[in-house]
Amino acid sequence: MENYSPALDSMFHALADPTRRAVLHRLGQGPASIGDLAEPYPMGLPSFLKHINTLEQSGLIATQKVGRVRTCTLNRANLAAAERWFAEQRTLWSDRYDNLDTLLTILNGDDHEA
Amino acid sequence: MKPDLPFDFDVDAPNATMTINREFAGRRQMVWDCHTQSALLNQWFAPRPLTTKTRSMEFRDGGHWHYAMIMPDGQEYWSRLDYVTIDPIDGYTALDGFSDPTGAINPDLPRATWKVSFSEAGAHTVVRTIVTFASTEDLEKVMAMGMKEGMTSTLERLDDLLEILTKPEMTS
After folding, report:
1. pLDDT of residue A113
2. How many CB atoms lie within 10 A of CB A17?
3. What domains are defined for chain B?
4. Is B47 in contact with A92 (Cβ distance < 8 A)?
């Protein structure tokens, strides 16, 4: 079996946290400084930096310091592998259940449920 | 057109688990029937444009559902779901697996445990499905296969994927 991702475990760990997922979502819109990324969160900067470090170690993001500002960039290639599979699973279940809605509508019509 | 029914898809990747919660506009017995009778499963289980075909089904402890999801071009993807415990109409547990057209499980690919439960929410029904692989290594194997097959590959743009999976959570 092809081992497509050398760091899947750390990527899973990175994706498991809602703050880190939100940061990835934000970086999907373009690079951002750590200061800007941290702003919406009520946690202290050291706690936020731990999340950034986790994301960087997982390979999902890269950071670069220019002057006093550290900028984060989404590493789309590394995100794609695991992300894509989960997104496809979500789509599979969502579409499947939309079919079930249709079937239930038909069955409810037969049954005349209130 | 259709009512906006709650749908949650949660990934707990380090524990190789996906949890899917969905509310349905139907009574629990009806939603249960749709999950446990092949004539009804055939009408919804495969996501469009795929269709579902049942080769055999015995809905009982130790029984199975042997089915295919069929692409518009005729390509068939066979699976077998083995029922472990059944507790009408509260829930069931089962072991899924990739199979061949005869129903023989592919021993090279990991199987996942499905724990499906049904609860009432007024006149509606909430179905919770917890899919668990034995390890993240098992999950990785299934992912690698899924990517090769590309069966469910309907989303092409990474931006769409990001939108869906990394959507910030409003609660907690």
Report:
1. 46
2. 13
3. 7-165 (3.30.530.20)
4. yes
